[in-house]
Input
Amino acid sequence: MKIEILQDSLCGCFQLVHLTLKHFQYFQVGSIEEAISLLEKHGEEAKIIAGGTDLVPKLKARETEPKYVVDISGIKDLNCIEDYREGLKVGAVTTYDTLNRSPLIMRKAPVLAEAAREVGNVQIRNLGTIGGNLANASPAADTVPPLIVSRANLKIIGPGKERLIPVENFFPSANASVLEKDELLADIQIPDMPANTGEAFIKLGRRAGPDLSIASVAVALTLDGDICKDVRIALGSVGPTALRARKTEDLLRGEKVERKVLEECSEIVANEIKPISDVRASAEHRIEVTKSLVRNAVQIAMSRGGRGR
Amino acid sequence: MSEVELRFVLNGKPVRAFVKPNLTLLDLLRDDFKLTGTKKGCDRGDCGTCTVLLDEKPVNSCLILAPKVNGRKVTTIEGLGEASRLDPLQESFVNFKAVQCGFCSPGMLLVAKALLNENSHPSREEVKRAISGNLCRCTGYTQIIDAIMAAAERTTSR
Output
């Protein structure tokens, strides 16, 4: 049947072409070791699946055509939120919904709960995982800016090796991660925030409700009285990877955060990003949005820090 | 190509199936089990019309590889009520004329069911948030939200 001739015609109702997935062999693994040994054996022909919210559409679109699909969502060791050293540890297959409901996350990394609540819609939050959000490496990934301001480290496990790297070093370029083909992202380790730190995450999509962000910002700000003792600001969707707004941070550090300083923040952050124009927003719009998101997020973080969280 | 054996609970009954792993849960339900109440809309997780409950939680069945449901519990719209004994939500959708073409209704009803199971008297905002992953192109959303609010009131006042 010739369906190619219809490919330029849109159908809003029943879709002209339902894509079927190419054949692959499927492994539901029960342990990290089992997953690693499959990755080691099959290399680039294997793909990891957890929630599937990013991989399944890619399989349908034939963007990736693995021969082996390794489902890690049933690995119990990767499904946890627990106290760990001076902080907490979140397993890679923890869903957004679980993050959003966890009292421990609320207490120790509220900015992550705030972001998890904003991902997609309820159906996506019940499936999608934090590890998948990271490994998929979208510049618009909602959990990344919060993890950057939280100084999170990622534990990566490979055959007979293990490494821990800061989340900021995980994304070498757009849509890429440092994961080798035989490696697995196992967990995310988040150290406790200093006292008097307030956090905030804000994203703006094209509409309220589920949408990819056109810009997002996370802030963690530590107060000493009414002086900003330390601050970290991370931006999403305005560069090839999520990035720190270091000049804006420098401006705030040591300052009493007043209206004038907030206005200056907006100007400075506009100069440290070079977003692209795409289907979601123009570069100019992204800059304007980021200016106001940063101002608002700093203000919210400050008021939360002032309440002694 | 090797098939995978699945055993899971479908609408309250234990079932068994042999599937190719590249089958989605949506296609398994529609083509193998002939449960065509679950609709195929965008087939990429954007429209919500393929929503089913997996262990009581709403998910997009188009984003799930069939082998994932092994050992779990799946509820489709066919498991919600019967023609002679509608679920209060279904009755309410009828009363409020919250159905026009009907394509989004199975998904809407199942997210609403999951919401009310967890939160028996949600605010209007909570209802809107719950159905934000489900597109309706006919009625607008007002009647649907009204119907869910009324069903919640009816259930709690019983």
